[in-house]
Structure formats: C-alpha cells, structure tokens
Amino acid sequence: MAEHLGVRGEDPDGEGPPAVSAVMADPARLTHNAVVATPAPASEEAPELDSEPITASTLEAPAPSTTRVRDRALAGDRWIARVLRVGAVLSGGMFVLSLGLEALPGSESTHVAIDQLRKAAASLLLVTPVARLGVAGTLLGLRGEWRYAVIAAGVLGLLALAVGAGIQA
Fold this sequence. Notes:
This protein is mainly alpha-helical. The protein is built from three helices and three strands, in the order E-E-E-H-H-H. It has helices at 64-101, 108-142, 146-168; strands at residues 4-7, 19-23, 36-38. A three-stranded antiparallel beta sheet has the order 1-2-3, with no helix packed on it. Helix 1 runs antiparallel to helix 2 (108-142) and helix 2 (108-142) runs antiparallel to helix 3. The radius of gyration is 33 Å and the shape is elongated. The termini are far apart.
C-alpha cells in the first residue's frame, strides 16, 4: 500500500495544484485522521505551500452572525419560558393563598376573598398559554417568520371570537 494517497487535479502541462493527502503508513503514530497539504512542484501558477497539518487551532471559529442568530432564538425561548413560569407561579401562589385564608375564622369577607382568589388563579392559569402564543407570535414576527406570526395571530383572533361569543350568550 502506498505511503501517501494523493489527490491531484488534471493539468495539461503535467503540473497540478497542491495535492491533499492522508498519511496511511503507520496507524500507531496517528491518533486521529489528519489531512496534510503537500506542495506540488514549484511553478509560477501554483506557489509552494507549507506541509503543516491542519489542527484544531488552525481551524476558524463559526461566523459571529451564526452565533447571534442562535442567541436571539434562545432569547425568544427564554421569554416564552418566563411567561409560562410567571403564569404558573402566580396562579399557584393564588391557590396556596386561598388555602391559607381558609385557616382564618369564617367570615363573609374571608369567603369572598377566597372565592375571588381561586377565580383569579384559574383565569390566570387559562390565560397563560394564550399569553405564550402572543409572545411567540410577536417573536416570530420580529425574526421575519411571517407565516407563523400570521398563524399565531389567526389563532389569537379565533380565541377572541370564541370568548366574545361566549360572553354574549
């Protein structure tokens, strides 16, 4: 088996561009696959290259724009998570507070407060996913994904129609 496996482009003059080869002679010396640029014969068209192996330190980092897009997407996910978390924690807190009020002596104002807290907690628990849909639609619109932003707006519109029809009935 050959010590170097070279890949060269075809050139009518017989001189090609620098070859890229993989060393295959001694697998015990290699800890990972390495691509080594070997210089082609010197000519005016193809300058000589160093035969330095490509390592992790010579590779370039991803473009900053890719990182920014990912950071913006994660920031949107964080906003959605915050909306859901705040809605669930506030609703749960209201339910726990209403249970704590039951330990007080039974008066008319205490029963009214308990009833109001439980209704508000249930309403908040139901409104939280709707608020999440609004935040997600807004964030999708800001990212330029208009199709999904319009779908989110349509769903919110249908929910508003259903609530309006339910209130009038």
